[in-house]
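3.2 Worked example (two chains)
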Amino acid sequence: MACTEQYQINNQLLDDLIELAKETKIKSLDDGCDDFFTENVNFFSKSYMVLMCAYLEAYIKSVSKHYISEISCKINEYKIPSNLLKWSIQKEKFKVDNEKDCLKLNVSISANDIDKNVSANPYTTAPFFIRLGIDLNKNSNYSDLSDLVETIVNKRNSIVHHNDNATDITFDDVILNAAKLKDYIKLVDEEIIKAMNDIT
């Protein structure tokens, strides 16, 4: 199935992180491993948890910007009068103020608008995507995956904001969590692709 460039980039980053976690696990079990490494092994698992959530958030931001840009191009292509849309939404409340109302419709969502509304937490992501016209909850797998992703993001938040030492996170957990994030971004990407296909 087709995918976005943003998916390809972030999926590869998660693949690389999985490989790094596997290598770190092997090194941590090596009898010849230096003391500094073994005494700070927990630092690696914490860092990997934070990093994978950063990749997730980066994906959501970049794919959203891409999607909005695609929608904007389509709107510009059809040169839709903005006053017609305003009238449709506002009905009788719509009043023509001046000639500026004859401008063509334009999507003016900035990167800052997106950044203020995006989070790695799936229960923030789903309402954000509704703004884009994409209902992630219609996908039957979204609920199950979003519960798992929320657990991962909450652990990351505990590490970053509450100095959680994350001694309960093993390298195997890191690998499993990164694999779950790969499944999640794949699902989100499939919904983005479907929505983009609907507008072409």
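3.2.1 Second chain
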Amino acid sequence: MGKIVDVYKEMVDKYLEEKATVVFANSNVSHASYIIQRMLESAEKEVCILSGTFNDVFYQGAEVKKAFQVAAKSIYKNGGSIRVITADEPDTKDLRQLFKEVNESAGGKDVVKYISAINGGKPEDIQHFIVVDKLMYREEERHPLLKEPLEQAKIKAEVCFNAKEKASFLASSFNSIWERLSAH
């Protein structure tokens, strides 16, 4: 199994370095975590994440958490933003602390909004994705809200590191939801 993960990571790094227009599949939890980590590390100006539960499996890993912290400092230094929309406040203290740190890096700007404010608490009704610099994206197929870690294997996603049109479309969708949440 380790070799397969290594080969996948090598492919991800190659596509990222080349800014490849290749759209590739992602349905493995450790692959997803690595992709998110690498996207955050590459971010220069903007990160938008629309997530059902801001799941611990994806976002709490040490590498992903560190990538968030580094990205926050770099992005805010460049005058950019990290914004997250999720179902509700994360269950884990570590993720709440991460949100607090990102918020502090942003100079107290609002960086997290909760979908329950407008969607009747139905995060399964929204498309989950991450967009970086309106260029890269990871978009999941619609799926019910997953409560158990083993269910994560059911998530299928597509990823591209150079898809300006699709990434801009997703960022625009994110901005529309962000504005609706800001009005509440």
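3.3 Remarks
Residues 80 and 123 are 26 Å apart (CA to CA).
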